[in-house]
Amino acid sequence: MEVQADVSSWTAAGHRPPCLRVILVGDHPASASYVRGKRKAAAEVGIDSETLRRPDTITQDELLALIGELNADDAVDGILVQLPLPEHIDADAVIEAVDPAKDVDGFHPENTGRLFIGAPRFIPATPFGIMELLRRSDVVIEGAEAVVVGRSNIVGKPIASLLGQRDANATVTLCHSRTRDLALHTRRADILIAAVGRPNLITAEMVKTGVTVIDVGINRVDDASRERGYRLVGDVDFEQVAPKAARITPVPGGVGPMTIAMLLRNTLTAAQTSPVAT
Ligand code: GUN
Fold it and tell me: Which H, E and C letters describe 115-170, residue by residue?
């Protein structure tokens, strides 16, 4: 992996390994699984990562205090608070508590704003990964009709912004749950990004031949034939849509691994741009 080579160069130059701290509140099974994936990948590329697990009874003040400690610790380069958080905690307050210079998720309003004006510091990992996938697959973005389905702060809004920036130049349509005629928009897409969390929402008649499809959905659907009782499917009906698509990302295995790589890239960037780290 490229990040691994870049971490090696960084440490070979006498710096300590980049340091990531992940906060996991409660025992949401999907979150625990994502966090394990992040930790394993970090270890593989030489990033020092540790997961700080806290029970879902943690108070907001306790969580903010923990973030304050990590903010103040010069040995910590990157902080990630795994979402979702329990209902009694105000996620916006938590996101805003993270030092923007350590916000490797890119969720702090300062970093969101920087991305929006075209001067990003940390690009959230999923949209960052999507842009890398498109660019490395030689997808023509310039002038393309890009349709984004889903307006989350984690994926939909930032990828819509990135695709419309001056270095990308797509014409962007942002669709959401109140879009009157979703298929009208998705059928026009040269690039279709599905990020809503609705299994198999995008069907064959909703896309045009030759479309590039990026499926960000990771949905658990019951499947008694699997040992664990469920299987993972995307927001796109892969079987149906794949024959019409020029390119399509599978679930699992498409966007997910790229997302983790981008988080590690952001962690290295945090170490390299830190005002205090050595
Ligand atoms: N939950 C789902 N995706 C993400 C992510 O990219 N970062 C964090 N912190 N939580 C998530």
Answer: HHCCCCCCCCHHHHHHHHHHHHCCCCCCCCEEEEECCCCCCHHHHHHHHHCCCCCC
240 is catalytic: no
Distance 82 CA to ligand 1 centre (A): 5
Residue 267: CB within 6 Å of ligand 1? no
Write down the catalytic residue from 6, 77, 103, 105: 105
Decide if 125 contacts 260 (C-beta within 8 A): yes
Query: Which residue's CA is minimally distant from atom 1 of ligand 1?
Result: 83
Q: How far apart are CA 246 and CA 242, in angstroms?
A: 8
174-192 average pLDDT score = 98
Q: Which of 6, 38, 157, 215 is catalytic?
A: 38
Task: Please report, to the nearest 10 degrees, the dihedral formed by the alpha carbons of residues 12, 13, 15, 18 taken in order.
Answer: -60
> CA–CA separation, 164 vs 160, rounded Å?
6
Backbone angles phi, psi at 34, to 5 degrees: -60, -45
Q: For position 248, what pLDDT does the model report? A: 98
**Overall pTM surpassing 0.85 (yes/no):** yes
12-28: pLDDT as tens digits: 999 999 999 999 999 99
Verify whether residue 38 is a known catalytic residue: yes
pLDDT tens for 104-160 read 999 999 999 999 999 999 999 999 999 999 999 999 999 999 999 999 999 999 999
What's the token pair of residue 225? Answer: 């034939």
- Band the pLDDT of 276: cuts 50, 70, 90: confident
